Amino acid sequence: MRNVRLSGREAAVVRALGFAESMLGAEILDATKMELEDVSDTLNGLIAAGFVESIPYTEQIDMAEMPGTCFEVNPAYVHELRLAITRR
Q: Which of 49, 59, 78, 79 is the most exposed place for a label (fewest CB within 10 A)?
């Protein structure tokens, strides 16, 4: 099991995403109340780490495309991400 450590921004994005369904980038922006650039940078970091997946799959998301793209937590890391959020 991997010991996952999230920054405050990463934890806020994962909390907003939840663990049940995918969510549009615009909804993540509304839920986190963060700037577009911060959310897209954070999502790109989470995607690069394998914790979050985009629908359709991309390795990196552009700021312009982010609000209309769906995101979901990678099911392989749900348990570890829940623990990381509760430790905060």
A: 59
Domain at 35, CATH number: 1.10.10
| Cα–Cα separations (whole angstroms), residue 12 to 48, 55, 56 | 17, 20, 22
Radius of gyration of the chain (CA): 12
Residue 6 CB-density burial (10 A; 0-12 exposed, 13-18 middle, 19+ buried): buried
Per residue in 24-78, pLDDT (tens digit) is 999 999 999 999 999 999 999 999 999 999 999 999 999 999 999 999 999 999 9
Q: Is residue 73 part of a domain?
A: yes
d(CA 87, CA 41): 23
Of 59, 42, 52, nearest to 73 (Cα)? 52
42: which residues sit within 8 A by CB, 6+ positions away? Answer: 7, 9, 10, 12, 13, 34
